[in-house]
């Protein structure tokens, strides 16, 4: 019973070819994939290069560790980012236009007084929570305030 | 079962029946692959950086500090500067129980404390600045700050009698410096070097960093800027005391000169009670927050500790007195007034650019 | 035509193999250990490839979909299910198109499958996260997936061969 079934099945059903060696078609597939990826990477690279000046990233760090780094354009709808630590809690409002510290458990609320952060170089620091929220531009990898000035005295 | 499968598998694996009809990738394929490799290389190479710039931010000295260096030794310089910074922080903080300042505050005439060279020197300088400003800057303001609750989560207007009592002990002459780096304070007096320590630390760090092979040094000690550049110009902004995250003016700094830009103002640290705004900079004679038409004082110079002390002192005096005081001391300063005027020392002519909404008036 | 019991047995074994491999992979390479978010070796693809070669397309589809469903039932989250389902269906479609081609070996099938899996995942991510910026992950996901695909093909070959010979044995 088993045998006949198996026989009829294997003989009538078209089995895929048992091709276990890397062949020309495979090379074509690999080439096509690599090329497509290269084009996409290249396209993204060029896109970023052209738009790097208007790219704004929000970077949130606590005690020197980066908690979040995102292109502001990615926030198609506003969200609130919550930080909870043994120092206290914070709620940071994030949207494609602006970022601000909505709530902080700290005493002096200097960070909340910083108001809305919109352009590269803007930042708010919360000393008690050791949290830094910065807007950095796309063309500087480091966190230094780019744009018009090299540093701000306050 | 398993062994059986494997045996059979091996047996037939030898009789390779199906061979791929074509196992050689075409020449076009080779072209394809090499093209994509070259493509990706170009992108990797074009991403290279030209100058070596290193930036490090840390929380220290009760503030947020960013050290930026550019040049050959940048990485090493930043590392060593941050180590030095953390070492100094421990000495000057009043809040740390085992710091030298904490020990000084619990000393008495009978039991003076021996201080390290740095601390003793800074204390000396603080006393000197206090004397020069006629006590407008005073390193013994700490008890008043505590009374108002600055630095805690309980900021409030204290009892008038308490202030009158505490203000008697605000006197830099009650800090006594003895020989051999020994010092003591009179009962009820507490020293806080917060007003000069940041400036002083900036000076020390800058001194250290100048020994490295660098092109640019930029230190941001919680808003106190110390900058040096070998050639190109740097632009330092002065924060607007009215709208946060905007500037009232910018100062361009020419090459190869150490420059500190230090601002004092009560626009960040303040609290509001019963509709009245109380800032954190105290009038040392009344024990109440200073309330004049000056919104912020920025001092530009080569000595950070001095700038730090004087900016505080100028903030607490009447605007016209501030001008005379600045001239007498030979300070380059920018006084930011509440009517949108920037009073700028005439020695800074051509270097200060007002931002929208602000007008410059030079004085000498 | 009646389904061969042997085929049913093979499909069932491969489904359980797919599940075991999924769990094994989650255990060996926990989330976040690999540098590209969403990237996996895709060991379960071994089972799907074997089914495709040894049984048939429909059964391979069944294994791919059931695997995702059972993983969901075993305590997976709905987002992960969506990702693996869409990725799995894309991979299956591509592999079906290529499997009977003469010039394409199991390597090509597996690599193209893995690449399509990545595309499927990104599409799911586009839908879930509603931001076009996930596309920037696509090339990395696809390239890494292709490498993994080659490895999977390599691991699959002996199993397909072994199954063929069990089949041949029974015919004789």
Describe the structure.
The complex is a heterotrimer of chains A (154), B (364) and C (172). In chain A, the strands form 2 sheets. In chain A, strands 2-1-7-6 form a 4-stranded antiparallel β-sheet. The longest helix of chain A has 27 residues, at 24-50. Chain A has helices at residues 2-12, 24-50, 110-113; strands at residues 56-62, 65-71, 79-85, 88-94, 99-104, 123-126, 131-137, 151-153. With 154 residues, chain A is α+β, with helices and mostly antiparallel strands. Helices cover 27% and strands 31% of the residues of chain A. Chain B is 35% helix and 25% strand. Chain B is built from 10 helices and 17 strands. Chain B has a 9-stranded mixed β-sheet with strand order 1-2-6-7-10-13-14-15-17. In chain B, helix 3 packs antiparallel against helix 8, helix 5 packs parallel to helix 9 (304-316) and helix 8 (194-209) runs antiparallel to helix 9 (304-316). With 172 residues, chain C is an all-alpha fold. Chain C has one domain: Orthogonal Bundle (Arp2/3 complex 21 kDa subunit ARPC3), CATH 1.10.1760. Helix content of chain C is 77%, strand content 0%. Chain C has helices at residues 5-28, 44-54, 57-73, 78-99, 106-129, 138-171. The mean pLDDT of chain C is 86. Chains A and B meet through helix 2 and strand 8 of A and helix 2, strand 1, strand 2, strand 7 and strand 8 of B.
Q: Which sequence of SSEs, written as H and E, runs from N to C of chain A?
A: HHEEEEEHEEE
According to DSSP, the number of beta strands of chain A is 8
Distance between the termini of chain A: 90 Å
Q: What is the spatial order of strands in the main beta sheet of chain B?
A: 1-2-6-7-10-13-14-15-17
Choose one word for the global shape of chain A: elongated
By CATH, the architecture of chain B is named Roll
User: How helical, in percent, are the residues of chain B?
Assistant: 25-40%
Percent range of helical residues of chain A:
25-40%
Number of helices of chain A: 3
Strands of chain B, total number:
17
| CATH architecture grouping of the largest domain in chain A | Sandwich
Strand content of chain A: 25-35%
Oligomer: heterotrimer
Largest sheet of chain A: 4 strands, antiparallel
Q: What order do the helices and strands of chain B follow?
A: HHEEHHEHHHEEHEEEEEEEEHHEEEE
**Broad shape of chain B:** globular
For the biggest sheet of chain B, the summary is:
9 strands, mixed
CATH homologous superfamily grouping of the largest domain in chain A = N-utilization substance G protein NusG, insert domain
Q: What are the low-pLDDT stretches of chain A, counting only 5+ consecutive residues below 50? A: 1-12, 140-147
